## 1
Amino acid sequence: MNNTLRTGALAPVLALVLAPVLAGCAGGSAAPAVPGTGTSSTTASTTPAATTTTTSPPVESPPVESPSASSSPTPPGGGAPPAGGARGGGGAGGVAAGQLPRGGSTVFPAYRLFGYSGAPGSAAFGRLGTGDLDARVREIERKGKAYAGGRKVLPVLELITVVVDSQPGADGDYNRQVSDATIRQYLAAARRHRALLLLDVQPGRDDFLTLAKQLEPWLRQPDVGLALDPEWAVEKGQVPGQTYGRTTGAELDRVAAYLDGLVRAHRLPQKVMVFHQVAAKVVRRQEGLRSRPGVVVIKSVDGIGSRGAKTATWQVLVKGLPRSIHPGFKLFYDEDTRHGPLMTPAQVLALKPTPEYVLIE
């Protein structure tokens, strides 16, 4: 049974997907050349479910400008983070400091999360990066109703914020960060629709905790959480696009502990921390993740393929899931349909355990 995974052909994905996103980095210079540009390849990758293949899709969207690697994030609004305001959507009101965008301070079991991921400038990163942003969020709200399953739906915008690069850059960490203006734009859209913004991190050779701390001005906001992509977490001597990255439960727990500290220090509602997992080897010893009152940890099971293949991967990756980790499931709006019909909301909600976060890329 084939299950095509999004990192199955890493170098071509970096070549075709990242170049538009990174084109404006480092003072507006062109993105560095990526090995394999303009080609597609098929790479076998052994996963818990099957041997997989993939061909990366073309990218046609315009580039997005990013700061240099040495820049640090500016708090929302360009100054101090806004104090708590009226909870709700339209306008510039923001959200109350101790409340989630649609009320309450705890995520589960009141809510099911449903959202899109992406970054401006690359259709291959996901639906969130293409078209009118507010139209996309309205689409999230509309489609999310089918995933309620007896819960309220909390819309999610998962913005790929730290983007892996095939070149080391000045600091040798193989990543770039999108501009503060981009984060501010997506946070404003989230607030107009009472949605949650998750900042997705592809670390390269950097480590998750360091990058999370660099995003602290944003993470101090009550409606901003974090998503981590460990398949792009490579070690010294390794290059993203040439090898799968990996992490450990203990490393992820250090990030969760940091977020829990922010929640306590700033009297915030629970923080959502997602980690994406495409294969068992990507996250080792997940039992190292502890339960913390201020943080909801979600494992998002990734993988492109047919319903059968995705279900097989799901069964492997959620088996023995610790109580400290909530289940999440990812659909690929275009790529999955190359292997059959996209799974329906009813089919997704029929998975056991039932996903508490459903993401479409």
## 2
Amino acid sequence: MESLKNRKNKTSSGDQQPEILDDPDRLINEETAAKFLGVTQRTLQNWRLKGGGPKYIRISARCIRYRKRDLIIFADERLVSSTSEYENGGRSA
């Protein structure tokens, strides 16, 4: 059986445990959300300020969290199969 100390060392190295990302309602921090979407944390911050980004949860003034489910929805809404779809606002004609 894996000791708590070993388990703690694995998670403190910055590696996200797979079971955390498997739960679509699990709250994830800005860094993990940015990595998931393939953007920078600054991009997420700009989207929050200007609008147009994924839904987020404001725990406090300095604590922002995202649900994996909302990140997937955000990405799926922008899914296109050709540049002509993108030029039409992401919708097929």
